[in-house]
Structures are given as structure tokens and as C-alpha cells.
Amino acid sequence: MDILSKLSERLKELMDESEINTQSLSKEIAVDQSAIARVLRAERMPSLKTLVAFADFFHCSTDYLLGLSDKLEEKVFKNRPPFGEQLTLLLDHFKISKYKLEKETKLTEETVNRWHKGKYEPTVESIVRLAKYFECSTDFIIGRES
């Protein structure tokens, strides 16, 4: 099962367990109903901001939502820093250069530089790619956990 399908399934389960509908969730997390509906229908991956809003609302990890972990534990995560700052911390933590990251993940120099300068946030797919590359959680990649 692909990540978007798993996300859709997990989000539906969490919404059912919480007895919350799309309209109420939309109001709670300040995300347009249509964006939530597209995720629920497995039509479109949410933005990173929306994924984190889902995880924060349901007090779960982004790995759980994405189906990268089956462990559902209620946990409060840190507020995530801007991704440019987090990327600097990741490069330092894993002792890797931007050049090596680009080459080994097949990310373009332009993409990594835009993230580093804070011009763009990575897609959820890119976060998953980085988590697999570094062999860590997506929450660690985005700075929600230490």
C-alpha cells in the first residue's frame, strides 16, 4: 500500500475514533475542508504543514499517519523549527555535506538550497525520502522530536 493510501486509511480511523467529521476537523486545524477531503479520498498528498496539523491534532507521529510505523502512542511533540534551520541541524547531526546529501538522495542542488534558505518547505514525499536515507523518523527530520 502506498503512503497516500495509508495516510487516508489512518486519518479515517483517527477521525472515526475521535468522532470528528471533515467540517469540524477543518475548523480545528484551520485547513480547508476540500484539502482534507482530497487526502481522505487518497487523491492528493497534504502539504507538510497540513500533515503536521493532523499529527498535532490527533497527538500522534507523522510516521504513524504515513504508515511508516504501526505504533500509535499519544505523545506531545515539539513545535517544529523552520525547515531551513532544521536542515542545518540535520547536516550537522549526521555529519554530511549538502553536496553529499544531494548526490546520495538524488535531490537537486536547487531544491536543497531553496529548503536551506527557507524559500520552500519540502514535500511530504521528500521528508519520507530523507527519513529513509538517514534511517530515522519523519518527525526527527522535521524537528518535532529530538
Poorly predicted ranges: none
The H/E string reads: HHHHHHHHHH
Task: Compute the CA-based radius of gyration.
Answer: 15 Å
- Report the biggest beta sheet as strand number plus sense, adding barrel if it closes: none
Output the CATH topology of the largest domain. Answer: 434 Repressor (Amino-terminal Domain)
Number of domains: 2
How many individual helices? 10
How many beta strands in the DSSP annotation?
Answer: 0
> Termini separation (Å)?
29 Å
Shape: elongated
Helix content bin: 55-70%
The CATH homology group name of the largest domain: lambda repressor-like DNA-binding domains
- CATH class assignment of the largest domain: Mainly Alpha
Architecture per CATH nomenclature, i.e. the level-2 architecture of the largest domain = Orthogonal Bundle
Mean pLDDT: 95
Q: Provide the structure class.
A: mainly alpha
What is the percentage of strand-forming residues?
under 5%
Question: Strands, helices and their partners?
Answer:
Layout: H1 3-18, H2 22-29, H3 33-40, H4 48-58, H5 62-66, H6 83-93, H7 98-105, H8 109-116, H9 124-134, H10 138-142
Can you characterise this structure?
It is a single chain. By secondary structure, the protein is an all-alpha fold. The chain has two domains: 64 residues, 434 Repressor (Amino-terminal Domain) (Orthogonal Bundle); 60 residues, Orthogonal Bundle (434 Repressor (Amino-terminal Domain)). 62% of the residues lie in helices and 0% in strands. The two termini are 29 Å apart.
